[in-house]
Design a protein that fits this description.
One of its GO terms (cellular component) is cytoplasm. It is an enzyme of class 3 (hydrolase). GO terms for molecular function: inorganic diphosphate phosphatase activity; magnesium ion binding. It catalyses: diphosphate + H2O = 2 phosphate + H(+). The chain contains 2 helices and 9 strands. By secondary structure, the protein is α+β, with helices and mostly antiparallel strands. Strand 2 and strand 3 form a beta hairpin.
Length: 177
Amino acid sequence: MANLWEDLETGPNPPEEIYAVVECLKGERNKYEYDKDIPGVVLDRVLHSNVHYPSDYGFIPQSYYDDEDPFDVLVLVEDKTFPGCVVEARPVALMKMDDDGEKDDKVIAVPSEDPRYDNVEDVDDLTEQQKDEISEFFETYKNLEAGKQTETLGWEDKESAKDAIEHAMDLYEENFA
């Protein structure tokens, strides 16, 4: 069985087009995580707060970020997919975030093969409502977990997202190649 973090390429043309491995589903409270040792998607926990993922959420293969995890990606979808689904996506923004004192930024991407997102190219193409809902989720989803605090630190453009992806690819290469 292939390991989706180590064996799958970062994307067909990274950082312009990436693969997103879905862990958590739009509209759900289950926090799934890919366990590379199994390999497979396991239930990590159910979110303690009464909130749900604003869209499909997962990681970018062959990436490693400053929080010492694969780089996080939120893929804007109309209909949820399934844990372990690989989505070809285009990065459009970067949401800066602090998770309990650690840098934990999120790439925001859109599916390459969904015509509803053809006109979404950069952070300015996201509505204020979309950005507010995403920020609100990541600011509150750990509120009821003892001692956990998160803070969103603003939005950056597609170029910042691509730079962060390249950084995560470099860190993966340095640590695991």
